[in-house]
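Q: What structure does this chain adopt?
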Amino acid sequence: MSSQAVFHFGARAAPDPFARLAGDSEVVARLRGSLRRVAHSDATVLLRGETGTGKGLVARLLHDASARAAAPFAHVDCAALAPSVIESELFGHERGAFTGADTCRQGRLEAAARGTLFLDEIAELEPRLQAKLLRALQDRAFERVGGTRTLSLTARVVAATHRDLRRAVAEGSFRADLYFRLQVFEVTLPPLRERLDDLPMLVARGLDAIAQRAGRQSPRTTDGFLHVLARHPWPGNVRELWNLLERLVVHDDDGVLDGADAEAALDPSLGLLGAPAPVPMRVAESPEAGDDRSRVAAALIAAGGNVARAARRLGLARTTLRHRVERYGLRELIPRD
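A:
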């Protein structure tokens, strides 16, 4: 899943690229203002933010809003590649530079041309490559691995990290001179817990986009659903929210998402949606389970009146369980939302 998806949830492209950042909260408005100020410059930008806050999307929007929009956007994930691979990925290599280098290869610094070079998770670069990157940024020049010809770095550089680079510098794991070179313009992306005013919009856009992609009707949400989501700390931020909504859409069977659905999706003790959580004893084997009505009643009592949990215990769809609750006159076992 792309970073763009997790932050703007499929919003339509707009003349102002930064309108794609979903949210009306004050922190998002400040973020848009900061990005607009730097978009048309060639200044190096350092994006800071927790995992899942949309750093990849913001890097792309900076590119789209700049005079370099028609040029390439080159993305390198420094955390996803081994040190032996990332040097060639960044700088390229000449034929015969190392075992297996059968051809000359262009690196991302070169491929970005006059566009934007996005260095994601920059803090994961090993010290030797930090030094080599520093030289490229300072001198706007570099060589391919195994090469002697000096090439020019003409791209604008945007870097991102979820780590505290100041602390990394103090601990000696990140070069201070590289940090100051990257920190020409620093932007911090807010975590979801600091922009909960945007939660209803994010949920609505997310459900619409996911349902449309799946060819399904977007489910309706209750106030209880949003209240449960608002209490969650969201360590994975908007990416975590997107994943949760995607699971809920896939497993939705009645077109309504309520507080019980949110609790079941967020509580690891209840198991993943679609997979019942382990219980010490099957309801059908309990002393109270003499017939179907007793089984349903016992499951509801064991689940504290939570229909979603009771349905998973019984291996039934929620709609089926609700029909049986009505048929057996068991509504008093379900607390009002």
